[in-house]
Amino acid sequence: MRYHTPTSFADASAIAAGTTGTLRFLAGGTDVLVQMRAGMVQPDDLIDLKHIPGVDKITANRDGGWRIGVAVPGIVLGAHEGLVKDWPGVIEGMNLVGSTQVQGRATLAGNLCNGSPAADSVPGMVAAGAVATVTGPKGEREIPVEQIPAGPGRTHLAKGEVISAITLPPRGKNGGDAYLRFIPRTEMDIAVVGCAVNLRLDGDRILEARVALGAVAPTVILSEACAKAIIGTTLDDAALAALAKAAEGAAKPISDKRGTKEFRTEVVGVLARRAAKIAYDRAKGLKA
Predict the structure, then answer these.
(1) What's the first-to-final CA gap in the chain, in angstroms?
(2) What is the dihedral of CA 154, 155, 161, 162, to 10 degrees?
(3) Using one digit for the tens of pLDDT, what is the confidence trace for 169-226?
(4) What are the pLDDT digits (tens) for 126-179?
(5) Which residues, in sequence order, are CB contacts of 34 under 8 Å at separation 6+?
C-alpha cells in the first residue's frame, strides 16, 4: 500500500487521478480503517487528507453560512455554539454517528462518501441544502450533497475528485430544522428509518421546506412531494397527515433483518410528522 500525505487538495487530486488500483481517502478514518481491519478493502493507495491546512477548521462565511473542513470530527461540531444554534438538525444527525470515541474522529464528509443510505448525518445536510466543494483535475466545483452518493459504498465523484469542504447555507430568520431516526436499540445502531425536515416561516405559515428521507431507498431521498404537502400551511393536522402520506409514497424501502419494507414505510410517515413539528417549533423559537 502506498500512503500519501498531500499538503493541498490539488496535490491530493493529482495523486488520486494517477492511481490505477483501489483508492481510499483518509479524513476521520472511522469507515475506511474499520473496513481495512475487517479485510473488506485493501487500498493500493491511501491518501491522508489531514495534513492539508484548514481541514480541521469551521469557518463562518460572510453571508452567514458555515464552511466545514473535511477532517472536523463530530465532537467538535457538537460543541460549536454557532452551528448548534443555526443547524441543530444537522448536528443531531452527526451526534448519532457511533460512540463518543467514534465522535472524536467521524466526519460529515466521510459519512457522506461512505454512501450508506442509513447514514445519520446525510439527511440533515440534504434538508439544509448543504453543498460539497469538490476538487478535481479540472479544478473546483460545488455539488449539492444529495448528488454525491450513488448507492451503498458508491459516489458520483469522478476519478481524481475529492471533497474539500462542506458548506451549510445561512440559516436566516424564522427557520428551523430537525432530524429523527428509528433504531431497535437505544443507541449506537444503524438507522432503520431516518427523516430530516428544514423549513422557514412567514408568520405562522410555512414559506419554504425541504424534507429528506433516509434508509428507505438506495440513497437519501429529497422529497418534493413532502415539501409541497406542508408549504403554505400552519402545520395543522391536515398538513401533517398529507406529509405522512407523501413520505410513505416517496419511500422505496427493502425488507431486511432490521425491518420489513411495510414497517419502514409506516415509520417514515411517523418520523416525518414528528420531525416537522420539532422544526416548526424551532422556527417559532419554542424549542431549542
Answers:
(1) 47
(2) -90
(3) 999 999 999 999 999 877 778 899 999 999 999 999 999 999 999 999 999 999 999 9
(4) 999 999 999 999 999 999 999 999 999 999 999 999 999 999 999 999 999 999
(5) none
d(CA 182, CA 195): 9
Q: Say which residues have a Cβ less than 8 Å from residue 236's Cβ, sequence separation at least 6.
A: none
What is the spatial distance between Cα 13 and Cα 6, in angstroms, rounded to a whole number? Answer: 9
Burial class (CB in 10 A: 0-12, 13-18, 19+), 145: buried
In sequence order, the 6+-apart residues with CB closer than 8 A to the CB of 195 are: 123, 179, 180, 181, 211, 212, 213, 214, 247, 268, 271, 272, 274, 275
Phi and psi at 112, nearest 5°, equal -65, -45
The Cα 223–Cα 146 span in angstroms is 11
- How does DSSP assign 157-222, residue by residue? PPTT-EEEEEEEPP--SSEEEEEEEE-SSSSS---SEEEEEEEEEETTEEEEEEEEEESSSSS-EE
d(Cα 279, Cα 211) in Å, to the nearest integer?
Answer: 11
C-alpha cell at 264: 419502514
- Amino acid at site 153: G
